[in-house]
Design goal:
The protein has 196 residues and is α+β, with helices and mostly antiparallel strands. The chain folds into two domains: 82 residues, no CATH class; 96 residues, no CATH class. Helix content is 31%, strand content 28%. β7 and β8 form a beta hairpin. It is globular and about 50 Å long. Bound molecules: zinc ion.
Amino acid sequence: MNIFENLIKVDESGNIVYNLWFEWDHFNIPNNPPILRSVMRKLMAFFNHCLKCTALDGCYLLESKSPPQPLHENCDCSKVRISQTKVENKAQTSCSIDKISNYIFNSENNKGKKDLFESWGYSIADSVEIQNELKNQALNNYINGNYELRNLDQYGLRLAIPVNLRGNKFYSGWMLEPEGKIRNITPFGGQINERK
Ligand SMILES: [Zn+2]
């Protein structure tokens, strides 16, 4: 596979963007299955291997949007160059319907968000539509490098990804997982102020 495929793109503002993807690698950590990965991460942590680093193992990141490497002194991590096409082929999103129907539209715990989504013309009956929009838009934006880095801890790296629902732009929060998987953790993470 040619790693230079789709390397150069032109963004919405007409700027040339280089999509240089790599897979974060830490030795001895398998990407799959999740149980073995978890066991190996715990075992390696016992030998003082950083849990942030082993959480990043297997994750696809853009050279220009990644935590620094080395992440810390004596960091064992390295980068494996991958193509844009591989990211496009492997990337997938997951978003539990509960995050929408039982979280966004929960009037007891979540009055603000429910009111906001209702002001955009949505109701709990639109939960599947919102779920699909979040998944599709986040997938597209991630593949095109339209993501921002958020908190990194032992559980992994969080990404803020822009979403547009009926003209309302906001960030949704995702956990980055191995091999291009992103899992929704926060459907609504704050409106985007456009002041450019
Ligand atoms: Zn490291």
